[in-house]
Amino acid sequence: LLGAALGSARAAVYFQEQFLDGDNWQKRWMNSEYKPDFGKFKLTAGKFYGDPVRDKGLQTSENSKFYAISSRFKPFSNKGKTLVIQYTVKHEQKIDCGGGYVKIFSSDLDQKNLSGDSRYYIMFGPDICGSETKKVHVILNYKNKPHPIKKLIRCKVDGYTHLYTLIIRSDQTYKVKIDNEMVASGNLEDDLDFLPPKKINDPTVRKPTDWDDRIQIDDPNDIKPEDWDEPEYIMDTSAKKPEDWDDAVNGEWHYPMVKNPLYRGEWKPRQIDNPNYRGVWPHPQIDNPNYSPDFSIYSYENIGIIGLDIWQVRAGTIFDNFLITDDEVYAEDFGGETWGETKGPEKEMNIKQIEEEQEKERVIEEKYFEQRFKKKLKRKKESGKDRTVRNTEKEEL
Protein backbone atom coordinates (compact mmCIF):
# COMPACT_ATOMS: atom_id res chain seq x y z
CA LEU A 1 0.00 0.00 0.00
CA LEU A 2 2.86 2.35 0.86
CA GLY A 3 4.53 1.60 -2.50
CA ALA A 4 1.31 2.27 -4.38
CA ALA A 5 0.83 5.53 -2.50
CA LEU A 6 4.36 6.69 -3.32
CA GLY A 7 3.89 5.66 -6.95
CA SER A 8 0.70 7.66 -7.14
CA ALA A 9 2.46 10.67 -5.66
CA ARG A 10 5.21 10.54 -8.27
CA ALA A 11 2.99 9.90 -11.27
CA ALA A 12 1.41 12.64 -13.32
CA VAL A 13 -1.97 11.25 -14.32
CA TYR A 14 -3.29 13.31 -17.22
CA PHE A 15 -6.36 11.22 -17.89
CA GLN A 16 -8.03 8.31 -16.14
CA GLU A 17 -11.47 6.90 -16.94
CA GLN A 18 -13.11 3.83 -15.41
CA PHE A 19 -16.82 4.74 -15.83
CA LEU A 20 -17.60 4.12 -12.16
CA ASP A 21 -20.20 6.90 -11.76
CA GLY A 22 -23.00 5.62 -13.97
CA ASP A 23 -24.42 7.91 -16.63
CA ASN A 24 -22.16 10.84 -15.65
CA TRP A 25 -19.70 9.61 -18.29
CA GLN A 26 -21.89 11.39 -20.85
CA LYS A 27 -20.81 14.73 -19.37
CA ARG A 28 -17.16 13.89 -20.01
CA TRP A 29 -17.44 12.24 -23.42
CA MET A 30 -18.74 13.98 -26.53
CA ASN A 31 -20.26 12.20 -29.52
CA SER A 32 -19.22 13.53 -32.90
CA GLU A 33 -21.93 15.13 -35.06
CA TYR A 34 -19.87 14.94 -38.23
CA LYS A 35 -22.26 12.30 -39.58
CA PRO A 36 -25.88 11.86 -38.49
CA ASP A 37 -25.69 8.07 -38.67
CA PHE A 38 -22.69 7.47 -36.40
CA GLY A 39 -23.08 4.40 -34.19
CA LYS A 40 -24.07 4.85 -30.54
CA PHE A 41 -22.08 3.81 -27.48
CA LYS A 42 -23.71 2.39 -24.36
CA LEU A 43 -22.34 1.78 -20.88
CA THR A 44 -22.29 -1.92 -19.97
CA ALA A 45 -20.12 -4.69 -18.56
CA GLY A 46 -21.29 -6.99 -21.35
CA LYS A 47 -22.62 -10.52 -21.30
CA PHE A 48 -19.85 -11.83 -19.07
CA TYR A 49 -17.54 -9.96 -16.73
CA GLY A 50 -15.36 -10.19 -13.66
CA ASP A 51 -17.15 -7.41 -11.77
CA PRO A 52 -20.56 -5.94 -12.77
CA VAL A 53 -19.52 -2.38 -11.85
CA ARG A 54 -15.76 -2.18 -12.39
CA ASP A 55 -16.00 -3.85 -15.81
CA LYS A 56 -18.50 -1.37 -17.24
CA GLY A 57 -17.18 0.46 -20.27
CA LEU A 58 -18.21 2.03 -23.58
CA GLN A 59 -19.63 -0.62 -25.89
CA THR A 60 -20.37 -0.26 -29.60
CA SER A 61 -24.04 -1.17 -30.07
CA GLU A 62 -24.87 -1.05 -33.81
CA ASN A 63 -23.52 -3.23 -36.59
CA SER A 64 -21.84 -1.82 -39.72
CA LYS A 65 -21.35 1.66 -38.31
CA PHE A 66 -18.69 4.32 -37.91
CA TYR A 67 -18.15 5.51 -34.33
CA ALA A 68 -16.63 8.78 -33.16
CA ILE A 69 -16.48 9.92 -29.54
CA SER A 70 -13.88 11.79 -27.49
CA SER A 71 -13.05 13.15 -24.04
CA ARG A 72 -11.11 16.28 -23.13
CA PHE A 73 -8.54 16.77 -20.37
CA LYS A 74 -6.10 19.45 -19.23
CA PRO A 75 -3.53 19.98 -22.03
CA PHE A 76 0.07 18.96 -21.43
CA SER A 77 3.36 18.33 -23.24
CA ASN A 78 5.38 15.15 -22.95
CA LYS A 79 8.65 16.91 -23.80
CA GLY A 80 11.39 15.48 -21.61
CA LYS A 81 8.98 12.96 -20.11
CA THR A 82 7.70 9.45 -20.62
CA LEU A 83 4.26 9.13 -22.18
CA VAL A 84 2.12 6.10 -21.34
CA ILE A 85 -1.20 5.40 -23.11
CA GLN A 86 -3.16 2.46 -21.73
CA TYR A 87 -6.68 1.02 -21.89
CA THR A 88 -8.58 -2.26 -22.07
CA VAL A 89 -10.42 -3.73 -25.06
CA LYS A 90 -12.90 -6.57 -24.97
CA HIS A 91 -14.10 -7.93 -28.32
CA GLU A 92 -16.96 -9.77 -26.66
CA GLN A 93 -18.60 -10.44 -30.03
CA LYS A 94 -15.37 -12.03 -31.33
CA ILE A 95 -15.10 -9.28 -33.90
CA ASP A 96 -14.69 -10.21 -37.57
CA CYS A 97 -13.82 -6.77 -38.93
CA GLY A 98 -13.36 -3.52 -37.06
CA GLY A 99 -11.09 -1.26 -35.08
CA GLY A 100 -10.34 -1.31 -31.38
CA TYR A 101 -7.76 1.47 -31.25
CA VAL A 102 -7.64 4.90 -29.61
CA LYS A 103 -6.39 8.23 -30.92
CA ILE A 104 -4.65 11.05 -29.06
CA PHE A 105 -5.32 14.59 -30.31
CA SER A 106 -4.26 18.15 -29.76
CA SER A 107 -6.58 20.14 -27.50
CA ASP A 108 -7.65 22.33 -30.44
CA LEU A 109 -9.59 19.44 -32.02
CA ASP A 110 -13.21 20.25 -32.84
CA GLN A 111 -14.82 17.36 -30.99
CA LYS A 112 -18.23 17.80 -32.59
CA ASN A 113 -16.65 17.25 -36.00
CA LEU A 114 -14.36 14.36 -35.10
CA SER A 115 -13.96 12.02 -38.08
CA GLY A 116 -11.46 9.82 -39.85
CA ASP A 117 -10.02 12.96 -41.46
CA SER A 118 -9.23 14.62 -38.11
CA ARG A 119 -5.50 15.00 -37.59
CA TYR A 120 -4.21 13.04 -34.62
CA TYR A 121 -0.92 12.77 -32.74
CA ILE A 122 -0.94 9.06 -31.93
CA MET A 123 -3.05 6.08 -32.97
CA PHE A 124 -2.63 2.95 -30.92
CA GLY A 125 -4.44 -0.34 -30.46
CA PRO A 126 -5.79 -3.49 -32.11
CA ASP A 127 -7.34 -3.72 -35.56
CA ILE A 128 -8.97 -6.89 -36.90
CA CYS A 129 -10.41 -7.71 -40.31
CA GLY A 130 -10.72 -11.23 -41.66
CA SER A 131 -7.96 -13.76 -41.32
CA GLU A 132 -5.16 -11.48 -42.52
CA THR A 133 -5.45 -8.32 -40.41
CA LYS A 134 -4.97 -9.02 -36.70
CA LYS A 135 -2.47 -6.40 -35.64
CA VAL A 136 -1.73 -3.65 -33.15
CA HIS A 137 -1.40 -0.21 -34.70
CA VAL A 138 1.34 2.15 -33.55
CA ILE A 139 1.12 5.28 -35.71
CA LEU A 140 2.82 8.54 -34.77
CA ASN A 141 2.33 11.88 -36.46
CA TYR A 142 5.51 13.66 -37.49
CA LYS A 143 5.40 16.95 -39.42
CA ASN A 144 1.70 16.45 -40.16
CA LYS A 145 2.20 13.02 -41.65
CA PRO A 146 1.26 9.68 -40.01
CA HIS A 147 4.07 7.15 -39.75
CA PRO A 148 3.13 3.51 -38.94
CA ILE A 149 5.48 1.15 -37.18
CA LYS A 150 7.29 -1.25 -39.52
CA LYS A 151 7.05 -4.18 -37.10
CA LEU A 152 4.08 -6.53 -37.13
CA ILE A 153 2.53 -6.77 -33.66
CA ARG A 154 -0.24 -9.34 -33.33
CA CYS A 155 -3.28 -8.53 -31.19
CA LYS A 156 -5.49 -10.76 -29.05
CA VAL A 157 -8.57 -12.28 -30.69
CA ASP A 158 -10.12 -14.56 -28.05
CA GLY A 159 -13.10 -12.42 -26.98
CA TYR A 160 -11.83 -11.61 -23.47
CA THR A 161 -10.71 -8.27 -22.02
CA HIS A 162 -7.08 -7.39 -22.74
CA LEU A 163 -4.84 -4.58 -21.55
CA TYR A 164 -2.96 -2.56 -24.21
CA THR A 165 -0.10 -0.25 -23.25
CA LEU A 166 2.09 2.05 -25.36
CA ILE A 167 5.15 3.61 -23.72
CA ILE A 168 7.10 6.39 -25.47
CA ARG A 169 10.22 7.60 -23.68
CA SER A 170 12.14 10.85 -24.05
CA ASP A 171 15.20 8.93 -25.26
CA GLN A 172 13.07 8.11 -28.36
CA THR A 173 12.59 4.47 -27.47
CA TYR A 174 9.21 2.80 -27.21
CA LYS A 175 7.59 -0.30 -25.78
CA VAL A 176 4.29 -2.04 -26.52
CA LYS A 177 2.74 -4.27 -23.87
CA ILE A 178 -0.29 -6.53 -23.97
CA ASP A 179 -1.62 -7.75 -20.62
CA ASN A 180 1.37 -6.13 -18.90
CA GLU A 181 3.83 -8.20 -20.93
CA MET A 182 6.15 -6.65 -23.51
CA VAL A 183 5.44 -7.69 -27.11
CA ALA A 184 7.55 -5.11 -28.98
CA SER A 185 10.19 -2.49 -28.31
CA GLY A 186 12.78 -0.48 -30.15
CA ASN A 187 13.89 2.95 -31.28
CA LEU A 188 11.37 5.29 -32.91
CA GLU A 189 13.81 6.44 -35.57
CA ASP A 190 14.71 2.88 -36.54
CA ASP A 191 11.22 1.37 -36.53
CA LEU A 192 9.21 4.23 -38.05
CA ASP A 193 10.26 6.08 -41.19
CA PHE A 194 10.33 9.60 -39.72
CA LEU A 195 13.68 10.65 -41.17
CA PRO A 196 15.71 9.87 -44.28
CA PRO A 197 18.21 7.03 -43.75
CA LYS A 198 21.50 7.92 -42.11
CA LYS A 199 23.46 6.07 -44.78
CA ILE A 200 22.90 5.78 -48.53
CA ASN A 201 24.62 3.91 -51.36
CA ASP A 202 27.58 5.82 -52.78
CA PRO A 203 26.29 7.06 -56.18
CA THR A 204 29.88 7.39 -57.50
CA VAL A 205 30.63 3.68 -57.12
CA ARG A 206 29.41 1.09 -59.62
CA LYS A 207 29.29 -2.64 -59.32
CA PRO A 208 32.31 -4.25 -61.03
CA THR A 209 31.47 -5.61 -64.46
CA ASP A 210 32.92 -9.02 -63.59
CA TRP A 211 30.85 -9.35 -60.42
CA ASP A 212 28.54 -12.34 -60.88
CA ASP A 213 25.56 -12.25 -58.50
CA ARG A 214 23.46 -14.88 -60.28
CA ILE A 215 22.70 -17.70 -57.85
CA GLN A 216 21.79 -20.12 -60.64
CA ILE A 217 22.51 -20.26 -64.37
CA ASP A 218 21.46 -22.30 -67.42
CA ASP A 219 23.13 -25.69 -67.63
CA PRO A 220 25.38 -25.44 -70.73
CA ASN A 221 25.26 -29.24 -71.12
CA ASP A 222 21.50 -29.37 -71.30
CA ILE A 223 20.42 -29.70 -74.95
CA LYS A 224 16.92 -29.25 -76.28
CA PRO A 225 15.42 -32.57 -77.49
CA GLU A 226 14.91 -32.82 -81.25
CA ASP A 227 11.21 -33.63 -80.88
CA TRP A 228 10.53 -30.69 -78.57
CA ASP A 229 9.29 -28.14 -81.09
CA GLU A 230 5.63 -28.94 -81.59
CA PRO A 231 3.03 -26.32 -82.50
CA GLU A 232 0.66 -25.29 -79.72
CA TYR A 233 -2.41 -25.74 -81.96
CA ILE A 234 -3.05 -28.16 -84.82
CA MET A 235 -5.89 -28.73 -87.28
CA ASP A 236 -8.57 -31.18 -86.29
CA THR A 237 -8.67 -33.27 -89.49
CA SER A 238 -11.37 -35.49 -88.02
CA ALA A 239 -13.86 -32.65 -88.18
CA LYS A 240 -16.34 -32.56 -91.05
CA LYS A 241 -17.75 -29.63 -92.89
CA PRO A 242 -21.36 -28.97 -91.73
CA GLU A 243 -23.95 -29.88 -94.34
CA ASP A 244 -25.62 -26.47 -94.05
CA TRP A 245 -22.33 -24.60 -94.50
CA ASP A 246 -22.67 -21.94 -97.21
CA ASP A 247 -19.30 -20.71 -98.52
CA ALA A 248 -20.95 -17.67 -100.06
CA VAL A 249 -22.37 -16.62 -96.69
CA ASN A 250 -19.87 -18.04 -94.19
CA GLY A 251 -16.71 -18.01 -96.27
CA GLU A 252 -14.45 -20.91 -97.13
CA TRP A 253 -14.64 -23.68 -94.52
CA HIS A 254 -11.41 -24.74 -92.76
CA TYR A 255 -10.57 -27.47 -90.30
CA PRO A 256 -10.88 -26.09 -86.75
CA MET A 257 -7.74 -25.64 -84.63
CA VAL A 258 -7.40 -27.67 -81.43
CA LYS A 259 -4.82 -27.84 -78.64
CA ASN A 260 -1.88 -30.03 -79.60
CA PRO A 261 -1.45 -32.77 -76.95
CA LEU A 262 2.26 -33.00 -77.90
CA TYR A 263 2.90 -29.31 -77.24
CA ARG A 264 5.39 -28.91 -74.37
CA GLY A 265 5.75 -25.15 -74.23
CA GLU A 266 8.87 -23.06 -74.63
CA TRP A 267 11.99 -25.06 -73.94
CA LYS A 268 14.32 -23.78 -71.26
CA PRO A 269 17.54 -25.40 -70.11
CA ARG A 270 17.57 -26.66 -66.54
CA GLN A 271 19.14 -24.50 -63.88
CA ILE A 272 22.31 -25.32 -61.96
CA ASP A 273 24.21 -23.57 -59.18
CA ASN A 274 26.44 -20.84 -60.54
CA PRO A 275 30.07 -21.83 -59.86
CA ASN A 276 31.12 -18.17 -60.22
CA TYR A 277 28.52 -16.80 -57.79
CA ARG A 278 30.07 -14.17 -55.54
CA GLY A 279 27.03 -13.20 -53.49
CA VAL A 280 25.25 -9.86 -53.28
CA TRP A 281 27.57 -7.02 -54.10
CA PRO A 282 28.07 -4.83 -51.01
CA HIS A 283 27.44 -1.36 -52.33
CA PRO A 284 29.70 1.05 -50.39
CA GLN A 285 27.70 3.54 -48.33
CA ILE A 286 28.24 7.13 -47.35
CA ASP A 287 26.58 9.54 -44.93
CA ASN A 288 23.30 10.80 -46.30
CA PRO A 289 23.63 14.56 -46.89
CA ASN A 290 19.83 14.89 -46.52
CA TYR A 291 19.81 13.33 -43.07
CA SER A 292 19.78 15.43 -39.93
CA PRO A 293 18.93 14.04 -36.50
CA ASP A 294 15.80 15.14 -34.68
CA PHE A 295 15.71 14.42 -30.97
CA SER A 296 12.14 15.64 -30.53
CA ILE A 297 10.37 12.99 -32.60
CA TYR A 298 8.78 11.55 -29.47
CA SER A 299 7.32 14.80 -28.13
CA TYR A 300 3.99 16.55 -28.69
CA GLU A 301 2.66 19.86 -27.45
CA ASN A 302 -0.83 20.61 -26.23
CA ILE A 303 -1.99 16.98 -25.86
CA GLY A 304 -5.56 17.33 -24.66
CA ILE A 305 -8.06 14.84 -26.13
CA ILE A 306 -8.46 11.08 -26.34
CA GLY A 307 -10.94 9.60 -28.79
CA LEU A 308 -12.40 6.52 -30.43
CA ASP A 309 -12.73 6.90 -34.18
CA ILE A 310 -13.47 3.43 -35.55
CA TRP A 311 -15.52 1.31 -37.94
CA GLN A 312 -17.07 -2.01 -36.94
CA VAL A 313 -18.99 -4.58 -38.97
CA ARG A 314 -20.16 -6.51 -35.90
CA ALA A 315 -20.65 -4.35 -32.82
CA GLY A 316 -20.03 -5.36 -29.21
CA THR A 317 -16.51 -4.14 -28.32
CA ILE A 318 -16.11 -2.66 -24.81
CA PHE A 319 -13.49 0.03 -24.05
CA ASP A 320 -12.53 0.68 -20.43
CA ASN A 321 -9.78 1.64 -17.95
CA PHE A 322 -8.32 4.51 -19.99
CA LEU A 323 -5.10 5.95 -18.63
CA ILE A 324 -2.62 8.58 -19.81
CA THR A 325 0.33 9.13 -17.48
CA ASP A 326 4.08 9.71 -17.38
CA ASP A 327 4.79 6.81 -15.02
CA GLU A 328 5.31 3.26 -16.33
CA VAL A 329 5.12 1.72 -12.86
CA TYR A 330 1.86 3.48 -12.06
CA ALA A 331 0.40 2.28 -15.36
CA GLU A 332 1.45 -1.31 -14.66
CA ASP A 333 -0.02 -1.16 -11.14
CA PHE A 334 -3.23 0.42 -12.46
CA GLY A 335 -3.54 -2.33 -15.05
CA GLY A 336 -3.02 -4.97 -12.38
CA GLU A 337 -5.63 -3.43 -10.09
CA THR A 338 -8.24 -3.19 -12.84
CA TRP A 339 -7.86 -5.75 -15.62
CA GLY A 340 -5.62 -7.95 -13.49
CA GLU A 341 -8.22 -8.47 -10.77
CA THR A 342 -11.23 -9.11 -12.99
CA LYS A 343 -9.73 -11.14 -15.86
CA GLY A 344 -9.96 -14.44 -13.98
CA PRO A 345 -13.59 -14.11 -12.82
CA GLU A 346 -14.53 -12.87 -16.29
CA LYS A 347 -13.20 -16.02 -17.92
CA GLU A 348 -14.83 -18.22 -15.29
CA MET A 349 -18.21 -16.56 -15.89
CA ASN A 350 -17.89 -16.99 -19.64
CA ILE A 351 -16.99 -20.68 -19.32
CA LYS A 352 -19.93 -21.23 -16.97
CA GLN A 353 -22.29 -19.49 -19.43
CA ILE A 354 -21.03 -21.65 -22.27
CA GLU A 355 -21.53 -24.81 -20.22
CA GLU A 356 -25.06 -23.71 -19.24
CA GLU A 357 -25.89 -22.90 -22.85
CA GLN A 358 -24.60 -26.26 -24.00
CA GLU A 359 -26.72 -27.95 -21.30
CA LYS A 360 -29.83 -26.04 -22.48
CA GLU A 361 -29.15 -27.07 -26.07
CA ARG A 362 -28.71 -30.68 -24.94
CA VAL A 363 -32.06 -30.63 -23.06
CA ILE A 364 -33.85 -29.04 -26.03
CA GLU A 365 -32.33 -31.63 -28.36
CA GLU A 366 -33.37 -34.48 -26.08
CA LYS A 367 -36.94 -33.15 -25.88
CA TYR A 368 -37.06 -32.80 -29.67
CA PHE A 369 -35.99 -36.39 -30.29
CA GLU A 370 -38.25 -37.63 -27.49
CA GLN A 371 -41.24 -35.93 -29.14
CA ARG A 372 -40.29 -37.36 -32.52
CA PHE A 373 -40.04 -40.83 -30.98
CA LYS A 374 -43.45 -40.50 -29.31
CA LYS A 375 -45.08 -39.32 -32.54
CA LYS A 376 -43.51 -42.18 -34.44
CA LEU A 377 -44.64 -44.67 -31.79
CA LYS A 378 -48.16 -43.22 -31.88
CA ARG A 379 -48.33 -43.50 -35.67
CA LYS A 380 -47.11 -47.08 -35.40
CA LYS A 381 -49.83 -47.95 -32.88
CA GLU A 382 -52.51 -46.27 -34.98
CA SER A 383 -51.25 -48.10 -38.02
CA GLY A 384 -51.48 -51.38 -36.08
CA LYS A 385 -55.08 -50.64 -35.05
CA ASP A 386 -56.03 -49.93 -38.68
CA ARG A 387 -54.58 -53.26 -39.73
CA THR A 388 -56.56 -55.06 -36.99
CA VAL A 389 -59.83 -53.38 -38.10
CA ARG A 390 -59.16 -54.24 -41.74
CA ASN A 391 -58.43 -57.87 -40.85
CA THR A 392 -61.70 -58.11 -38.86
CA GLU A 393 -63.69 -56.68 -41.78
CA LYS A 394 -62.11 -59.21 -44.12
CA GLU A 395 -63.02 -62.05 -41.75
CA GLU A 396 -66.64 -60.80 -41.51
CA LEU A 397 -66.82 -60.48 -45.29
TrEMBL record:
Keywords: Calcium, Chaperone, Disulfide bond, Endoplasmic reticulum, Lectin, Metal-binding, Repeat, Signal, Zinc. Residues 203-229, 377-397 are annotated as: Disordered. Disulfide bonds join C97-C129. The keyword Calcium applies. Gene3D superfamilies: 2.60.120.200, Calreticulin/calnexin, P domain. One of its GO terms (molecular function) is unfolded protein binding. GO terms for biological process: ERAD pathway; protein folding. This is Calreticulin.
